[in-house]
Amino acid sequence: FTAVRYPYLKRGNYSFLSDRHLGFFQSILSPHQVLTDEFNDLSGYNVDWMHSVRGSSRLVLRPKTTEEVGAILQYCNAQNIAVCPQGGNTGLVGGSVPVFDEVIMSLGLMDAVISVDELSGIAIVQAGCVLEKLETILHLNNLTLPLDLGAKGSCQIGGNVATNAGGIRLLRYGNLHGSVLGLTAVLANGQIMDCLSTNKKDNTGYDLKQLFIGSEGTLGVVTQVALHCPSKPTSVQVGFFGINSFDNVLETLRLSKQNLGEILSSCELIDASSWNCVTSLLKLKSPVNYFPFYILLETSGSNADHDAEKLNSLLEMLLKNGTIVDGTIAVDSTQATSLWALRERIAEALASEGYVYKYDVSVPIRQFYQLVDVMRARLEKLPIRCCGYGHLGDGNLHLNITSQEYSSELLNKIEPFVYDWVSRQRGSVSAEHGLGLKKRDYIEYTKSPTSVHWMRRMKKLFDPNNILNPYKIFPGTLNE
Ligand code: FAD
Ligand code: S2G
Ligand code: ZN
């Protein structure tokens, strides 16, 4: 696929993997940490979650310590070997797999939870820890994660930091630039940058850890994270409302914020087409019948009676004043989970329909759904589906278009039009998934040329040989 969609990409003048290189890696790592295409099936590492980009790496290295990451990068930097850091490989912009034969550095073996302190809420975790595993351990300490996303069964906290993952709780807990107190990162030359602070406040010089949050593996490999985790809510309520118009969607958001206040933790939009996708393709049951729009609301608080009373009176008010037409509130965690599945499994349902053109954009909240209508009118009968869902409370729309298989005619009708449209709204062409390979040509639709110039200068400073995740984030070659 890579060649198909990115014919202009040329392999950089990196070294090709030799027996000498292999010998070095085998001398510092144990056998199960060195996977070669000669003895192992590396396809799972070379293809992204959406099966839309495929690399041809011949080697996967699986370090277990920060020091091993340092030794590997020091060698690769000296030998001009390109490296693609990989976490759970759930990224959606082609950032987590090689473009050509870059060596894959998989953080999966570095999955320890080093410490959890209930009083301070601080957890120190190795980068390769899967989010769901971390959540389970935090819950045992009356804490919870400050982020949650549909990929939590596979994605790793290091990958979440590298992509500054947003997810369904950002409305309540903010993003990782606030929740990450510190991290350890290994630079391209193998130098270990210890920013593993656990201070909530530290104004001593530049806050360098922030550079690695959202850097998509291009400035350094994150090996440890110090995360500030909120107290585990003792009462979680989930409501699911059927709504007739987008104006009433916005009114529902406004009244929910006003009446639920601090306990509101999620406000997700699902349109009729994405609802139809999960109910028809995955056979999921919906307690509310067909409507143009649905809102999934979640509250997270500390007093079940108080919280339930708040949510129930909101539901009554919304029904009474006609803002919503139908609605239900989960009676137990099983029903709450099945309501969440209607939202969190949309991606999976779309992937089962065919080829997916995914646009994760930030737009002004009043225009949240306009782009879907505009694209539907523009594409007419070309796609199977054009749907919109996402993090309404964050102004983050997931516009998804599907076709039987990849079609350049359809792609050319969508891009760059969709990016122009978002750019004219001064939105972001990538709200939470990052730019990776697939969106690298569109960074200047959101960032000024001066900003991109200084980002390139930073990349050159941190990774002068451009061995870390080359071909990602920026268009063209680095020296442009
Ligand atoms: P990978 O996919 O392995 O890598 C992602 C990027 O980070 C790559 O550029 C890689 O090189 C780099 N990287 C990985 N680990 C490290 C490390 N330790 N150090 C340095 N660089 C590293 N994303 C959201 O933001 N919000 C959502 O709601 C959301 N929902 C999703 C739902 C589904 C079903 C799926 C499949 C994906 C979803 N995603 C979402 C996208 C994806 O899960 C996130 O981007 C996630 O943070 C990626 O984590 P990962 O461990 O899989 O990283
Ligand atoms: C989500 C990821 C999947 C998609 O579900 O919130 O971030 O469909 C997305 O884009
Ligand atoms: Zn999302």
TrEMBL record:
<feature type="domain" description="FAD-binding PCMH-type">
    <location>
        <begin position="53"/>
        <end position="232"/>
    </location>
</feature>
<keyword id="KW-0285">Flavoprotein</keyword>
<dbReference type="InterPro" id="IPR016166">
    <property type="entry name" value="FAD-bd_PCMH"/>
</dbReference>
<dbReference type="GO" id="GO:0071949">
    <property type="term" value="F:FAD binding"/>
</dbReference>
<protein>
    <recommendedName>
        <fullName>D-2-hydroxyglutarate dehydrogenase, mitochondrial</fullName>
        <ecNumber>1.1.99.39</ecNumber>
    </recommendedName>
</protein>
<dbReference type="Pfam" id="PF01565">
    <property type="entry name" value="FAD_binding_4"/>
</dbReference>
<dbReference type="InterPro" id="IPR016164">
    <property type="entry name" value="FAD-linked_Oxase-like_C"/>
</dbReference>
<dbReference type="InterPro" id="IPR051264">
    <property type="entry name" value="FAD-oxidored/transferase_4"/>
</dbReference>
<dbReference type="InterPro" id="IPR016167">
    <property type="entry name" value="FAD-bd_PCMH_sub1"/>
</dbReference>
<keyword id="KW-0576">Peroxisome</keyword>
<comment type="similarity">
    <text>Belongs to the FAD-binding oxidoreductase/transferase type 4 family.</text>
</comment>
<dbReference type="InterPro" id="IPR016169">
    <property type="entry name" value="FAD-bd_PCMH_sub2"/>
</dbReference>
<dbReference type="GO" id="GO:0005777">
    <property type="term" value="C:peroxisome"/>
</dbReference>
<keyword id="KW-0274">FAD</keyword>
<dbReference type="GO" id="GO:0051990">
    <property type="term" value="F:(R)-2-hydroxyglutarate dehydrogenase activity"/>
</dbReference>
<dbReference type="Pfam" id="PF02913">
    <property type="entry name" value="FAD-oxidase_C"/>
</dbReference>
<dbReference type="InterPro" id="IPR006094">
    <property type="entry name" value="Oxid_FAD_bind_N"/>
</dbReference>
<keyword id="KW-0560">Oxidoreductase</keyword>
<comment type="function">
    <text>Catalyzes the oxidation of D-2-hydroxyglutarate (D-2-HG) to alpha-ketoglutarate. Also catalyzes the oxidation of other D-2-hydroxyacids, such as D-malate (D-MAL) and D-lactate (D-LAC). Exhibits high activities towards D-2-HG and D-MAL but a very weak activity towards D-LAC.</text>
</comment>
<dbReference type="InterPro" id="IPR004113">
    <property type="entry name" value="FAD-bd_oxidored_4_C"/>
</dbReference>
<dbReference type="InterPro" id="IPR016171">
    <property type="entry name" value="Vanillyl_alc_oxidase_C-sub2"/>
</dbReference>
<dbReference type="InterPro" id="IPR036318">
    <property type="entry name" value="FAD-bd_PCMH-like_sf"/>
</dbReference>
